[in-house]
Hints:
Elements lengths: L18 E6 L8 E3 L3 E7 L2 E5 L11 E6 L2 E7 L11 H11 L6 E8 L11 E13 L8 E8 L4 E2 L13 E6 L8 E7 L6 E4 L2 E2 L2 E6 L2 E5 L6 E9 L2 E2 L3 E5 L2
Antiparallel strand pairs: 1-2, 1-7, 3-6, 4-5, 6-9, 7-8, 8-9, 8-10, 11-12, 12-16, 13-14, 13-17, 15-16, 17-18, 17-19
Amino acid sequence: MTNPVSLPAGATLGKSFEHGLDVNLGTYGAPVWQPIRRISGWAPTYPPVTTDVATYDDLGSPNEDVSGRGFATAFTVQGNRLLSTGLYLPELEKILAAAKAKGEGAILDVRWYHKPENGTPNPNDAGRAYVRVEASRQNTGNAENEVYSVTLTGKGSFEPIANPFTGWGETIPVLSSVTPPTAGDGEMVTITGAGFLGATAVTVDGDPVPEFVVVNASTIIATLPTGDAGAVPVIVTTPAGPSTALVYTRGA
């Protein structure tokens, strides 16, 4: 029997697990994006703010325009702890700290994005927002895994962003920024981008940096080698190969 509804060649059905959510452990201008691991039940919404525009012409029927949209989501996350410290994974520590705080301490900077098992990520399914946090401990029985139920409610409008997902496994790293501007010899800079896990080298103007730390897949902290002031190329190399050079203007 022929399916009466044909699909384009190469079409595939999306999976519920093909989404990522990161929390910023750094600052807004110099983000340190940490993926939230072991999550389930990702349920994003974009609640509308409406304005009544009804007139006599509507004959008593409601008529509202959408004047703005926010962001909200809910999910569950497993309470994995580090044996060496007893702390939860850093992203869950950040979430729970915000859930107990007030004022600016109760706000998180998060981003979300399509993260397919196969194929190209949807470039339109990604965003960033400030959110306030509610968290409650679930699975409180006598022999259950520790799980937290988390609700994030946006503050202000969300920001559409370029999808940062570059695929599973080894991928060529991509650089997006080096901060702070005009750092000099021996000073530390933060390199942001994607695909940094397993980085084997970082060079500035062709010179290897004396020391660098891969914080996560999107962040490297590096010490600038000795060199001349001015515009120089920065390159990160992983087992998948070197990144395209990003030009950085360094100080004296």
